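User: I'll paste a sequence; please echo it back and then give the predicted structure.

Assistant: Echoing your sequence first, then the prediction.
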Amino acid sequence: MTTALWFSGQGAQSVGMAKSLYEADGDVRELFSRADETLGMPLSKLCFEGPMEELTKTSVCQPALFLHGICVATILKKRGMLGELKAALGLSLGELTAHALAGTYSFEDGLKIVAERGRLMQEACDASKGAMSCFIGASIDAVKPYCEEFDVDMANLNCPGQVVISGEAEKIEAATAAAKERKAFKLVVPLKVAGAYHSRLMEPARAKFEKFLAGIEFKKPNIAVFTNVTGEQISDPTEIKKALVKQVVSPVKWELCVRNAAKLGIEQYYECGPGGVLAGIAKRIDKELNVKSIAEFGDFE
């Protein structure tokens, strides 16, 4: 059986995440111990006990979700459920988890990378007043004029009929209000986020992240990995670095990633991490995709 792994993005975190995995599996306990030591913070305690406001901080939730994804993948492998693993892909932050799983960099380096990415993005959020809004029942072509009119950016192209915009809070509010007033879309929903992710407001984070990655060794991934920047498979270590840097300020082309991975003839997809969000999105991309979401120990049955 051919398989692929999907990794969650920011926002999927919840207090108690991965606790049942930790209690049931020695390798997971070791991964948590290595994470706490590598980052010099009680990540395990924050995952299991919260508080939610601390776990939700970008600098905490990104390594927490990275760790959770790797733990799920580790148990899948131990149980012989991966068959012929052909690809790994992730939404936003999840793309970095996919690269760790694919051997682009080590588990410890991956933790350091996502922790620094989260810290820099939090810094950029604090230095600006950003917001995001989701246009439902919308095409890219229909949303593009709103981006131009209100000077904001497209941030997420997750599935057909769903486009997320991102930018300065006042401009996002104006674009949202205009779309509602004109009754141009099925629904327009402001998102509860700390800032304007995947927009030009993240430029300070992008520039510093580029410098940080310069000192870390990247290798060619041992399975197919897809970049959110273009939706295409990517394998050259130098190009992977460039893509991960660019992703901070670019739209996430998740739908394209999924469609291109499907061309590899994947029979079973596993969503590794909390929430089941990616499995829900998958139904809107292609109902034929066979996706199983695994967050806790009971989900393996």
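Residues 58-78 form the longest helix (21 residues). The chain has a mean pLDDT of 96.
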